């Protein structure tokens, strides 16, 4: 249970990552991904990378610069422009629905304008899931100048699109529905220079 804990990625740039395991029985028609990050990086960095053998950017949450987040599904992406952070923790949730091809993005409990992405697509189930690196091949092929440096916490992945109430609940760290990946029961393996520490109160 990683309650009130964080992963600290100590080096910049870095070859370190955290590998996550989720038991997926079938391809995803919908998902919601939430996580909290704390960094002063101005260069591009990967927060969450979900790759299959067929597609290295099956799901990717990427931050090319401080005022932009990119959500990739099946190799295509949409960009959400955000105000430059005030140097605190940023909580993001990204949701996607195959039937409508609607991607939604929430930052610190507030929704951004929804965008269209990969209508009718299905996200493959056999995945390598990494925090802190972007995969260019299945489980590898990293560009260390896209690595994450800083602190990550509260990582969740659901196989549904969360309701607005639940998106806000994720931001406030309230009770959440069962997830494929849940911070309080995370199956993870640290590779390289990543340390689990108690979260500093803001």
UniProtKB/TrEMBL annotation:
Binds 2 calcium ions per subunit. Residues 3-202 form the Pentraxin (PTX) domain. GO terms for cellular component: extracellular space. Disulfide bonds join 34-93. The keyword Protease does not apply. Keywords: Calcium, Disulfide bond, Metal-binding, Secreted, Signal. It is found in: Secreted. Its main location: secreted. Its cofactor is Ca(2+). SUPFAM superfamilies: Concanavalin A-like lectins/glucanases (SSF49899). One of its GO terms (biological process) is innate immune response. Gene3D superfamilies: 2.60.120.200. GO terms for molecular function: complement component C1q complex binding; metal ion binding. The keyword Secreted applies. InterPro entries: ConA-like_dom_sf (IPR013320), Pentraxin_domain (IPR051005), PTX_dom (IPR001759). Homopentamer. Pentaxin (or pentraxin) have a discoid arrangement of 5 non-covalently bound subunits. Belongs to the pentraxin family. This is Pentraxin family member.
């Amino acid at each position: 249970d990683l309650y009130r804990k964080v992963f600290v990625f100590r080096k910049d740039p870095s070859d370190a990552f955290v590998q996550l395991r989720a038991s997926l029985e079938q391809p995803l028609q919908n998902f919601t991904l939430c996580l909290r990050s704390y960094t002063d990086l101005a260069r591009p960095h990967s927060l969450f990378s979900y790759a299959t053998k067929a597609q290295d950017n099956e799901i990717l949450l990427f931050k090319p610069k401080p005022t932009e987040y990119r959500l990739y599904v099946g190799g295509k992406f949409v960009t959400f422009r955000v105000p430059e952070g005030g140097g605190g923790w940023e909580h993001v949730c990204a949701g996607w629905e195959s039937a409508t091809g609607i991607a939604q993005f929430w930052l610190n409990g507030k929704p951004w304008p929804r965008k269209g992405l990969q209508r009718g697509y299905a996200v493959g189930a056999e995945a390598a899931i990494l925090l802190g690196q972007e995969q260019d091949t299945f489980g590898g092929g990293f560009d260390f100048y896209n690595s994450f440096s800083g602190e990550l916490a509260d990582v969740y992945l659901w196989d549904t699109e969360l309701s607005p109430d639940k998106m806000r609940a994720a931001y406030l760290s309230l009770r959440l529905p069962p997830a494929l990946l849940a911070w309080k029961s995370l199956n993870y393996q640290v590779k390289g220079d990543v340390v689990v520490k108690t979260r500093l109160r803001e």
